């Protein structure tokens, strides 16, 4: 690898870092651009409708990107994260203080608190944290998609309709399998399964940066019809840019010790990266060597899918024979 290639890689990496932060700036004028374009499209449809004397239902929506992001902040930060802070730093110390006031600084009070503290945390987690976490995941998914749709419509117009729905569904399912397996790969690298010492933490950060980039750009790439293999190949080939793009979010989400708090931080900030990815123009062809981080999980996903399909083909003839006998 020559000096020019190294310089190009560094530039692509820095460009990715800068592009990832542009969503926080675009946020303040994106709704205005959407509303201006929506007004223009309505006017154009109205004039066209008068000429053709037809009234087709309009699919144009006004800008709600800022509203959706504020809702993400309110749900994940104001409700979920704040409730964790109240439980950990207000409710638990208050109960501990009350118990000590009643029983005094005695062995009995210490023993009771030793048993009560984990039980309270377990109850709070089961009755509040888990349900709210699942609900927020579902709601966030809908809001993220809404933000991505609005941003894409503003820059590129209406996305093409997928006629082959079965192919689209299979691509989505396969993508979810790969992303889930890749998370296990990140965990395996991060906790030191590989004999790299502290370097494993850096490798884990690179993995997460690539995964976050895939998350952010996938909304745009799916809308323009890129299949999963093309999306993964594009990220692996242009790894310098996408490591830089995902690095700020991966660093911020790695700071909290709690996975739940990290998920809250991710849900608050990720919409900004969706907007950034929609407007970004990745730097390509800076290095001939790809970074095949997804190669292992792709092989595992193919093996899982092949076994599933093979079992389905083996079961279906037997099932049909039983139905015939009946």
Mean pLDDT score, rounded? 82
Query: What fraction of the residues are assigned to beta strands by DSSP?
Result: under 5%
Low-confidence stretches: 53-57, 315-326
How many structural units, i.e. domains?
A: 1
Please give the alpha-carbon distance between the first and last residues. Answer: 69 Å
Give the biggest beta sheet.
none
DSSP helix fraction: over 70%
Count of helix runs: 10
Shape estimate: globular
Structural class: mainly alpha
Number of extended strands: 0
Radius of gyration: 25 Å
Order of helices and strands: HHHHHHHHHH
Entry keywords:
326 residues, mainly alpha, 10 helices
Overview of the structural elements:
- The chain is an all-alpha fold and 326 residues long.
- Helix content is 82%, strand content 0%.
- The chain has 10 helices and no strands.
- The chain has helices at residues 3-20, 23-52, 65-103, 107-156, 165-190, 199-223, 228-237, 239-254, 259-279, 295-325.
- Mean pLDDT is 82; it is low at 53-57 and 315-326.
